[in-house]
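[stage:ingest] chain + small molecule (nicotinamide-adenine-dinucleotide)
[stage:ingest] validated
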Amino acid sequence: MVMGVREIREQFNPANTSECIGKIELHTIEETEVKIRASEQAFQQWSKLSSVSRGEILNSMANLLIEHLEPLAELASKEMGKTVPEMMGEVKRGASILRYFSQEGMRAAGEVLPSASEDKMLYTKRVPLGVVGVITPWNFPIAIPLWKIAPALVYGNTVVWKPSIEVSLTSQYIADLFEKAGLPKNVLNIVQGRGSKLGAVIIKSPKVKAISFTGSNAVGQQILNTAGPMNKKIQLELGGKNAAIILADADLDLAARLTIEGAMKQTGQRCTATSRVYIEASVYDTVVEKLIENAKKIKVGETMGPLASKQQFESVIEHIARAKAQGAKCIFGGKPVAELSHGYFVEPTLFTEVTHDMDLAREEIFGPVLAIFRVTDYEEAIRLSNDSEFGLSASIYTTNIHKAFDFIERSEVGLVQINDETGGAEPQAPFGGMKNSSTGFREQGQAAKEIFTVLKTVTINGIRVKGKCEQ
Ligand code: NAD
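[stage:predict] done
[stage:export] tokens:
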């Protein structure tokens, strides 16, 4: 069979754009189709292996990740720009995700139910789906793939994984470690290449029974349009425009520090990053000063990395220019860092005088940019924080327990934080948003089984011994 000609792609360091860090051979459409077929065949054996044995492989993978902590973090840092300490944190998080789901192999896969008939046994049993398509973005190149792949595998599915082309080398490293951990051939098949070309093959294939996707709303919509009518299970984790509220009764130092961390960590390239902050009028000036103080502490090029790619850099610069043109006032940052022009470095940027009809208040920027709003009171803050097409995460800083509980009820998001920044997820807790931030199933925790398994209901008739029980 002719497999087409492989394109070779060079990966460059976003912190030093002339440094080529490696090459990757991209797969062809034909190779992607072959890999999907191979995954379908591998499912026959993999799904028969006990879930405990499958979990043991995930545990070995967790150990390998920790053994490879430094080289993997350094490679991933050079490939997408997060600082090495941030990346080491992500590798460790990946190991925790694997450990959590390795244990899942020892947990119940169904429940026994009472039957109306004394002669019947009635129970449920979760079974895998078959081949699952996992399509992932570049911003968490280790954690996001693992929190999809680990549950998919432990429940007995095989996986075809298409990572973002921006993080091809890191993704290949992870796939190779899975092989070293003892994962049988074709249980996880990585396909390297462009989403519009190879992602499309996965989405359209009738052999792929579910799609778990994290990325932009535009691509998510295409997946819904194509895979939805094919009756595939679909999980979409999409964009965010996450708000924080700072009330007058809050610990203002904590609120300002965590708001800046929430906005600027990982150069703002987190779906849960804080991108809007609503401050009660009576403390507005004090808090804005504190926000600036905290932004000043960030050392671009040391504690904050570059944007991940030229495309990201240009997009963030364009958003900043548009915010200025629409009348927002840039009170801090707002430009590329002149002395770091060898990389895609942008200053942490703060805007005031933002109105809710500006793009800055509504569109996801995915960069180190924070929009600051003055509000008269809590009621105005909650109304404006909910005034968004997105609903991923939100936080409130307050010492008033009634307002905190009211916020838990009324904020239209999937992840609510009290006195903490908008980001943050733990493997045992469900992750996902409301409104246009998510579609379908939650990720992680026990919620992960909803996408990666299907329930069978089993009835066994004639379980009582008729007459005398013979030895
Ligand atoms: P993207 O949508 O451009 O790409 C995501 C993945 O989809 C990549 O692997 C890409 O190759 C693939 N893809 C692209 N076009 C495709 C197509 N036509 N068919 C199938 N696959 C295709 O997103 P990105 O730029 O990599 O990531 C940034 C976005 O991800 C942001 O919008 C961010 O908010 C979102 N994100 C969301 C979460 C969450 O949990 N909600 C987490 C991280 C990132």
